[in-house]
Amino acid sequence: MLTCVIGADLDRGYLVENVEHIIEPELSVLDPVQNTLRFIDLFAGRMTEVCARSYARTGRNPDEFAALVLANLVAPVLKNYAAVARIPFRRVPTDNIARFGHCFAYDQLITLATLAECGATRSGDVVHVLGAGANYLFSSTVMRLL
Predict the structure, then answer these.
(1) 140 near 53, Cβ under 8 Å?
(2) HSE-up of 8 (CA within 13 Å, CB side)?
(3) pTM of the entire predicted model
(4) Which domains does the chain have, with CATH numbers?
(5) Mean pLDDT, the chain, as a whole number?
(6) Cα–Cα–Cα angle for 44, 99, 82, nearest 5°?
């Protein structure tokens, strides 16, 4: 994701304040149907941990984020992510779900651009970009709009 958001223009765009990653290998081999509670505990636990690391390293708390930027998934899943991140669901932009659908790794990038272009975020606003990818890599990025 970072290769798509980092550039030389220091007057506009997002400044990356912090990036955290955690991988949970057990989730790759765990059968979520047979081990539902273990699966949920590991998934939520790693998501909680990656958020906690971001908050600790940046010195920010969940109340400081203008938006929680997530993948374009169904609302119940996004509500769970928001709860784990301790950011109210009302701060999760969802307009792009109907507009674009799920575009995999591009969801968060499209939402970041949309937020800046439509004025939903202003210069100085901090956003938390959160997601889980292939092989259960949990990622948290804290960015500030320039």
Answers:
(1) yes
(2) 0
(3) 0.92
(4) 18-145 (3.40.47.10)
(5) 93
(6) 20
